[in-house]
Amino acid sequence: VQLQASGGGLVQAGGSLRLSCAASKRTSSMYVMGWFRQVPGLEREFVASVWSHLKTYTDSVKGRFTISRDNAKNTVSLQMNSLKPEDTAVYYCAAKPRGSSEYVYWGQGTQVTVSS
Predict the structure, then answer these.
(1) What's the pLDDT tens digit per position in 59-116?
(2) CA-CA distance, 78 to 50, in Å (whole number)?
(3) Would you say 6 and 91 are in contact if contact means Cβ atoms under 8 Å apart?
(4) What percent of the chain has pLDDT over 90?
(5) According to the model, what pLDDT value does residue 5 have?
(6) Which of 74, 9, 61 is nearest to 35 (CA)?
(7) Partners of 20 in the beta sheet?
(8) Phi, psi (5° rounding) for residue 85?
(9) Which of 16, 19, 15 has its CA nearest to residue 6?
(10) Which of 99, 94, 60 lies closest to 80, judged by CA?
């Protein structure tokens, strides 16, 4: 599975961005799709994931970020609202087979910068 992320950019605090990730093949019932982020010098951090109707978020983004997937288009999106400077990072989309403990497919990162 090849993943292509897009939608990053520069936004002021309190603003919104929508990230999208296109998969090269059908992923609907076979893969868990996720978003991660990484700040230089720090470990990559889980942000959100979706499989079927099950959505999971890290605590710091709950109520502000929404993950969704369009199975017909093989895409997964991350709507980010009420952005904070601490959300600044490179965001990555990823996929893992259902039941796997590790994400095995990764897209290239997209930079999100939130100015104060």
Answers:
(1) 999 999 999 999 889 999 999 999 999 999 999 999 999 889 999 999 999 999 999 9
(2) 10
(3) no
(4) 87
(5) 95
(6) 61
(7) 6, 77
(8) -55, -30
(9) 19
(10) 60
Q: Label residue 1 by pLDDT band (50, 70, 90).
A: confident
Q: Are 21 and 67 in contact (CB under 8 A)?
A: no
The string of DSSP codes covering the chain is --EEEE--EEEETT--EEEEEEESS--TTTEEEEEEEE-TTS--EEEEEEETTEEEE-GGGTTTEEEEEETTTTEEEEEE-S--GGG-EEEEEEEEETT-SS--EEPPPEEEEEE-
The dihedrals phi and psi of 8, each to the nearest 5 degrees, come to -70, 175
